[in-house]
Description:
- By secondary structure, this protein is of the alpha/beta class.
- The protein has helices at residues 22-32, 50-63, 81-100, 118-138, 159-165, 177-184, 192-206, 208-211, 241-250, 264-279; strands at 5-10, 37-41, 66-70, 103-108, 144-147, 175-176, 214-218, 220-224, 227-232, 255-259.
- The protein has a single domain, classed as Divalent-metal-dependent TIM barrel enzymes (TIM Barrel).
- The protein contains ten helices and ten strands.
- Helix 7 (192-206) runs parallel beside helix 9.
- 46% of the residues are buried.
- The structure holds zinc ion (ZN).
- The site of zinc ion (ZN) has 3 residues, from loops.
Amino acid sequence: MPLSFRFGTVGSPQATPPKPGGTVGGIQYAASIGLHALELAWVQGVRVGETTCAAIKKAGEEAGVALSVHGPYYINLNADDEKWLRLRKYLTDAAHFGNLAGATDIVFHPGSYFERPADEVLAKVAPRLEGVVDELRAAGNPVTLRPEAMGKVAVIGSLEDVLALAKIPGVVPCMDFAHLHARATDGTMNTYDEWMRVLDAYRRALGDAAMKQMHIHLSGIEYGPRGEKNHLVMEEADLDFKALFRALHAAGAGGRLLCESPVLEVDALKFRALWMEISGEQE
Ligand SMILES: [Zn+2]
């Protein structure tokens, strides 16, 4: 039986050998150590051509590694009108070339509130996101857009925000549980009961099928009064990974779980081992 989750990393594993190297080498190395998901970290821009994308897609299919893309950090759904016209291309490019590369999901940071109330911001940004989905579908692109739950309190990306954006067909959250813990700022959002409430809200908003196709980012995290400061390795964090995994298991969750800690594949493999211990699942 395959595990309910595919485990992997955001960005190629750090020990990827230099040959063949690149994303293709990263995919092959990930599969060789038991990781069957990889998120292509196109965070500084989308700098690939069609030939590279075809090679990545082929490598993913051959190695049995499910691919996603992390879109550029510059995306900001709440930019002013003129700037948005430029920034939306980062998202449409990530989706276009991601789809060519075999990626099914495009993760992105939704943007800043610019100190406006969340409901006002969501009313402004949702139609923009819907416009992007419409453009992709018109071009025959089936990717799921995944606005990420974010760790800093000043940016779009609370649980409520990402569930609100997910009312748009084709939009489903990327659930970063470390970010949600950091965003609480006071050490809460770290118990089984708290995670069950999050997962219940997720299920109510998105349904049972979405529960089995979650897209999760996870790492240790350091935080302060404004939320996230930086990512930490698993052992240095106060995040109760066992409580989180027990809740995910109880909720019947599945999908992909991608590690973003400073020791990418080391912690990804620890997450996988912990999941097998808590769920009782075996490969
Ligand atoms: Zn991210």
